[in-house]
Specification:
With about 250 residues, this protein is mainly α. The chain has one domain. It contains ten helices and no strands. The model has no long low-confidence stretch (mean pLDDT about 80). It is found in: Cell membrane.
């Protein structure tokens, strides 16, 4: 991996992990578009999935007392189905189309989040079913699922502190499933993953980001950090989308 690419990947992981510690989400939205841009869709999303596993574990340790485990258990089977479908698409789709999926899915999910902020409260299991399937699918194909959960939280008026805490085991489970299904189904090309020594470097970057986020969480409003994460995600997703459309 080129030095500048590694620095960009580390920077994205530090920023994303820090934002996730402050706002409950951020690693996937920030890191996935950047890693996809430099490493390509398959390898970029795989690295993002692994970084998200480490981030969620570290953040969950701090927020575990506020997790809604009953809601987590209800949503987990739906994410499994969505993750398998996403892995099948990663194996079959062209690289350019994966770029389109990465960029387009993030932009659509963020737009849905903004629209649902002003909508009436959604009730019933239908919203949970759709969100669970969509989140598992999006996480495997694009490395980003938090916007789907954010849209669900806004639509159902899920209290933010409980949502941010419960999101950690959801993201942990989704990213573990995404990595497992990709490896088992052969969705990552041989030689496509980074060299072994890159992984501990990125893990250190994630740890530094979570530590910085813990410091910022006591000083920066979560709403401000979430807006920054969304802004960076929109820019990265738009770049990936344009690149995919230009090469289709």
């Amino acid at each position: 991996m080129d030095t500048w690419v590694l620095l960009a990947a580390c920077g994205a992981c530090v920023l994303g992990a820090g934002l996730q510690r402050v706002a409950g989400m951020g690693l996937g939205m920030v890191a996935a578009p950047v890693l996809t841009l430099f490493l390509g869709p398959a390898a970029g999303v795989l690295v993002s999935n692994v970084a998200a596993v480490v981030t969620s574990l570290l953040v969950l340790r701090a927020l575990r007392d506020r997790v809604d485990w009953r809601r987590f258990a209800a949503l987990l089977p739906l994410m499994v189905v969505g993750s398998v479908l996403g892995a099948l698409m990663v194996r079959a789709a062209d690289t350019a189309w994966l770029d389109v999926v990465v960029g387009g899915s993030v932009l659509l999910a963020l737009a849905a989040s903004a629209a649902l902020r002003r909508a009436a409260r959604v009730r019933g299991r239908g919203a949970a079913v759709v969100t669970g399937l969509a989140a598992g699918f999006m996480n495997t194909t694009s490395g980003v699922a938090a916007p789907a959960w954010a849209a669900y939280a806004l639509a159902t008026r899920w209290e933010h502190r409980s949502f941010a805490a419960t999101l950690q085991p959801l993201l942990l489970a989704m990213n573990l499933m995404s990595v497992a299904t990709k490896l088992l189904l052969g969705s990552v090309p041989a030689g496509g993953a980074p060299a072994w020594w890159v992984w501990p470097v990125l893990a250190c970057a994630v740890g530094a980001g979570v530590a910085a986020g813990a410091w910022c969480a006591r000083r920066v409003p979560a709403r401000v950090a979430a807006r920054v994460a969304v802004g960076v995600a929109v820019a990265g997703a738009a770049t990936a989308l344009v690149r995919g459309l230009l090469t289709v």
